[in-house]
Write a structure and sequence with these properties.
The chain is mainly alpha-helical and 101 residues long. It has a three-stranded antiparallel beta sheet. β1 and β2 form a beta hairpin.
Length: 101
């Protein structure tokens, strides 16, 4: 998997900055090289939201199998951390902000 690149200077964006974007409510990132704003694309937002779906499915599936809470909770936490750390690889950026619809 490859990290996304800046639309202006074509430099690969830093994983640390992309991870911060995952936890932030804003939908733009400033390139550390050229200092231009990069906006998350509409398709990228859709991909990252679909990435969380299997995580929720896992939680309900394990509950349906009546797995004990002592096993369910740690597996839920591990899956959540895995999803959060994979999200930066699914981002793509554009120069202009795109509407959600």
């Amino acid at each position: 998997m490859k990290l996304p690149t800046c639309c202006h200077c074509e430099k690969e964006l830093k994983y640390k900055d992309l991870l911060k974007l995952t936890f932030a409510f804003r939908q733009h990132l400033q390139c550390s090289n050229c200092h231009m704003k990069q906006y998350v694309t509409k398709t990228s937002r859709a991909k990252t939201s679909l990435l969380t779906f299997p995580f929720l499915f896992l939680f309900f599936f394990l509950q349906y199998l009546q797995i004990p809470f002592a096993v369910l909770f740690p597996s839920y936490i591990i899956a959540a951390i895995g999803v959060l750390f994979l999200m930066p690889f699914f981002y793509s950026f554009t120069n202009d902000e795109e509407p959600l619809w």
